[in-house]
Write a structure and sequence with these properties.
The structure is a single chain. With 285 residues, the chain is mainly alpha-helical. The strands form 3 sheets. It has a 3-stranded antiparallel sheet with strand order 3-5-4. It has a 3-stranded antiparallel sheet with strand order 6-8-7. A two-stranded antiparallel sheet has the order 1-2. Strand 7 and strand 8 form a beta hairpin. The longest helix has 19 residues. It starts with 12 loop residues before the first helix and ends in an 11-residue tail after the last helix.
Length: 285
């Protein structure tokens, strides 16, 4: 049984707090697309890239600027939804969108995708052309999505799938610092309480580890101290590399085959599972 990791007082916590306050200039880890040199992040979307290219009149926006604006919009929608009062388009434009009005529809689509696959909420317009929106709980996904999401029935499923996807796309092992560098782009910080996940660091490094979804161990000879994640034994029993790859592909609005190396690895795992166990008792005559 894995020991409960000690988080308090660990070196690097000050650096985390500084990054979470907006002083860090880190880049989030990428997920390799095949064996080529092009790189994709898990949250990157072809629509997001298109949006940045379609607005030259107001000056170029970097991918990081767009991701931060989408994260801000997601947080605004989650907070406003707590009162269960329809969220008006005028409120969103006034308090969040600002000078990004020219790509409002693109931002709203990206925010809707993140709300569904990370937080388990679907953004819908209350009535046609009403310009008012509400969030609907999707913890009981349709059959098609149940396989992709894992159908665990909790709001933390999306976050777990994100972490599992990062691990798989990074070669089945990923540093903890890389995980947090990426999650910050989704508005999830190790030193800040989250509206949906509570204490994200405790959830990922303790709860998911205790549930055996993740393995969490210190990397030897690192200064400052760093830790790494791998899939835990429960993950391999409850899901598969192909299901996680499908989740990543759906977030990207792409096909799993767009990542040939991971796709081949997932196929090999499926073939291994389908192969009958050898060395069992011989059938009686």
């Amino acid at each position: 049984m894995l020991q409960k990791p000690r988080i308090r007082g660990r070196p690097g916590s000050q650096a985390e707090r500084e990054r979470d306050s907006g002083h860090g200039g880190e880049e989030a880890p990428s997920t390799s697309r095949g064996t080529g040199s092009s790189q994709e992040t898990l949250s990157a979307s072809p629509r997001g890239t298109h949006a940045s290219q379609a607005t030259p009149a107001v000056g170029p926006r970097t991918q990081k600027q767009l991701e931060l604006k989408v994260a801000e919009l997601v947080q605004f929608l989650l907070i406003k939804d707590q009162k269960k009062i329809p969220i008006k388009r005028t409120e969103i434009l006034k308090h969040v969108v600002g000078d990004y009005k020219d790509i409002f529809s693109d931002l709203l689509k990206l925010a809707a995708e993140r709300l569904e696959y990370v937080f388990g909420y679907r953004l819908v317009e209350l009535e046609p052309k009403s310009n008012s929106y509400i969030l609907i709980n999707t913890l009981e996904p349709v059959e098609e999505d149940a396989e992709v999401r894992g159908d665990q029935g909790t709001p933390t499923t999306g976050l777990l799938m994100i972490v599992l996807g990062l691990i798989f796309m990074k070669g089945n092992t990923i540093k903890e610092t890389e995980v947090w560098d990426f999650l910050r782009r989704l508005g999830v910080y190790p030193t800040k309480k989250h509206l949906i996940f509570g204490d994200p660091k405790k959830l990922i490094t303790e709860e998911f580890v205790r549930q055996r979804y993740l393995e969490y161990r210190r990397i030897p000879h690192t200064d400052p101290i760093d830790y790494e994640f791998q899939w835990g034994p429960r993950t391999s029993l409850e899901t598969s590399k192909m299901k996680v790859l499908k989740f990543v592909a759906k977030v990207h609005n792409q096909d799993p085959k767009d990542w040939p190396a991971q796709y081949c690895e997932a196929l090999a795992e499926e073939a291994g599972r389908a192969r009958p166990e050898s060395g069992g008792p011989a059938p009686s005559s």
